[in-house]
Amino acid sequence: MDTKDLLSITGSLTTILQFLAGIPICRDIWRKGSTDGISGLPFLAGVLGCSLWFRYSLILQDQTMCLVNLIGLILQVCYVLIYLLYPSTQKATFHRQLGTILAILFGVIYYCSIEPKVDIAKFRLGVICCLTTLFFCASPLASLRDVIRMKNTAPLPFPLILLTALVTGQWYLYGVCIGDSVVQLPNLIGCMIATFQLSLFLVYPRTPAVKPHGDCIDPVVLECRKKIKPSDSAYQRTLLKKFQA
C-alpha cells in the first residue's frame, strides 16, 4: 500500500467522522422539540461545501474524493431535513439562507455543465471550492477575541478542532500526492488555522480560573469590581453579584 492509498483510507475515515458531528446537534433538537437557539447555517454550509467538492471530484475523476463528499452530502441533507421538521422562531431566516445556498449551488453546477472547456470549468470551480473552504475554515477565529479576553479556551471545541487539524492535514498530503493545488491550498491553510487554535490550549487553561472561596476572577468581572465604589448604590452592587453568579 503506497502513501496515496493510505491517505485515501485514513482521510476518508476521519472526514466521515467529522461529518457525523451533526448527529449530537440533531439529538439536541429532538430532545428540545424545536431548533430555537441552534443555528442551521453549519448544515447549509456543509451541503454547499460537499456539493461543490463532489462536482470538482467528478471533473478530477477522483473516486476517493467522490465517495467521501457524496457521503458527506447525504448526511448534511439529512441534517437540513431534520432541522426543517422542527419548529423554530428563526425559520424565516433559515429559509432565506437555504434559498441563497441553493441558488449559488445550482448556478455553479449549471455553469460547469455548459462550459465547453473542461480545463476552464475545473479551474473556476476549483477557485470557488478554495474560497468556500477557506471561509469556513476561518470562521472559528471569530471566537478568538473571547479566548484572549477571558484568557481561557472554554469557548473552543477541542475535539472538533483536533479532528479538523487531522482531516485538513491528511487532505493536504493527499493533494500533494495527486499533484492538485486546489486540494492542497485550502487544506494547508485550514490545518494551519486549526493548529494555531490548538496552540491556544497550551497558553490558556481550558476552564476559567476560580478562587477557592468561589469568586470568579474573569477579567470582565474584575474590571467591573474596579468601577464599583463605596458610594455606589445597593442596586449597582446587586447587579455585580448577579453578574458574578
TrEMBL record:
The chain crosses the membrane at residues 38-56, 68-86, 93-111, 123-144, 156-173, 185-204. Keywords: Cell membrane, Golgi apparatus, Membrane, Repeat, Sugar transport, Transmembrane, Transmembrane helix, Transport. It is a multi-pass membrane protein. Gene3D superfamilies: 1.20.1280.290. Mediates sugar transport across membranes. PANTHER family: RAG1-ACTIVATING PROTEIN 1, SUGAR TRANSPORTER SWEET1. This is Sugar transporter SWEET.
